[in-house]
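Field log, afternoon session.

UNIT: design team B
ACTIVITY: writing a sequence onto a fixed backbone
BACKBONE:
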């Protein structure tokens, strides 16, 4: 048992002080080959890692009482075992692993500890990856941004839309808490991969009234590249493993339909490419139900693509460096605008009437060139 009062961060100093909430990893004396992640990651085993040198920081959190499970999940350690065996191709991206959040005597204790750790790491400019645990831990990661008083764009990948306030499980209703809390720091929410037969039509009506964007599973699969600009401007990314078809994530056993393993990896690569992304969470993995560690392998490969995306995104130029972009001036229905395409990554941006640029796709440019309003442009204009 531990108590959150053990540390206050109302006036955080320059030095990270989060070790009080973390347990080191068990040293299993695993022998890794040269170039594997296990030989290169700075992990919390005998001493706390030098987080200041890291670009991406892993943290495990086994709290899952929000999903009705009283035991502590071992998901993070199962994923580490597979991830550490992968070869680290992008060695300019420095990795650290600060171990696991100590499970508190209550859900609130665990969530508060996770919030503190994420808060400190995000404030230090790190990309934090949370390996859960139940999906309601997303609420704790969101609260790390509220303590920073930072407005964010948030994207969730989930077969369900977790606003079921009648459910006895918090992981089915946490999203409603996030979207309706006051003061609220959600600038925009995007939901990817929901499966219609699991969603009440009124849920979709509620989300639409709030001007949030929800993309059905079929839409995501058919237009996967269109999800990249959706993710690009987000700071918080939450992935529930129930979004993946059971054949690719056998431990979840939720639905025969869903994303393929490759599609999940691509979405994670998009998240890594975003220079705005601060916190990513992967939740809902039940290692005790896994088959030949296939789900752990799936998540480890998603992490590999996240690192690959961070490497690619780091090579992107800022929009002020116009020589690094192809610039296209066009007009649609008497609206004049500018599109930019990166010469390095091929990604697109679109200028709004207030002269700000938002992430978009080549499809948006083609639509505008056909004298039609791009839907992304309209949806952005509708937002308060």
């Amino acid at each position: 048992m531990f108590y959150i009062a053990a540390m206050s961060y109302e006036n955080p100093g320059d030095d990270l002080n989060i070790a009080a909430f973390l347990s080191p990893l068990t040293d299993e004396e695993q022998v890794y080959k040269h170039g594997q992640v296990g030989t290169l990651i700075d992990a919390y085993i005998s001493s706390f890692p030098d987080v200041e040198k890291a670009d991406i920081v892993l943290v495990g959190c086994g709290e899952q009482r929000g999903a009705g499970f009283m035991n502590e999940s071992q998901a993070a350690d199962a994923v580490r075992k597979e991830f550490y065996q992968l070869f680290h191709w992008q060695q300019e991206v420095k990795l650290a692993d600060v171990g696991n959040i100590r499970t508190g005597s209550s859900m609130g204790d665990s969530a508060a500890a996770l919030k503190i750790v994420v808060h400190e790491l995000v404030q230090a400019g790190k990309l934090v990856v949370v390996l859960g645990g139940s999906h309601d831990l997303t609420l704790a990661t969101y609260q790390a941004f509220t303590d920073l008083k930072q407005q964010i764009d948030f994207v969730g990948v989930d077969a369900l839309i977790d606003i079921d306030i009648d459910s006895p499980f918090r992981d089915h209703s946490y999203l409603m808490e996030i979207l309706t809390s006051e003061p609220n720091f959600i600038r925009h929410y995007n939901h990817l991969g929901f499966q219609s037969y699991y969603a009440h039509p009124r849920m979709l009506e509620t989300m639409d009234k709030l001007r949030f964007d929800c993309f059905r599973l079929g839409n995501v699969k058919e237009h996967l590249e269109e999800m990249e600009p959706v993710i690009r401007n987000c700071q918080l990314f939450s992935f529930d493993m129930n979004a993946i078809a059971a054949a690719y994530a056998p431990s979840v056993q939720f639905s025969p339909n869903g994303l393929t393993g490759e599609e999940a990896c691509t979405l994670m690569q998009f998240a890594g490419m975003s220079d705005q992304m601060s916190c990513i969470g992967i939740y809902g993995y039940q290692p005790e139900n896994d088959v030949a560690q296939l789900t752990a392998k799936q998540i480890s490969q998603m992490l590999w693509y996240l690192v690959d995306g961070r490497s690619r995104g780091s090579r992107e130029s800022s929009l002020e460096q116009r020589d690094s972009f192809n610039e296209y001036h066009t007009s649609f229905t008497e609206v004049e605008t500018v599109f930019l395409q990166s010469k390095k990554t091929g990604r697109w941006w679109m200028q709004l009437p207030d002269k700000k640029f938002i992430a978009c796709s080549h499809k948006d440019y083609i639509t505008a060139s056909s004298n039609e309003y791009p839907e992304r442009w309209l949806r952005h204009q509708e937002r308060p």
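LOG NOTE: Confidence is low (pLDDT under 50) at residues 1-15.
NEXT ACTIVITY: expression trials, pending approval
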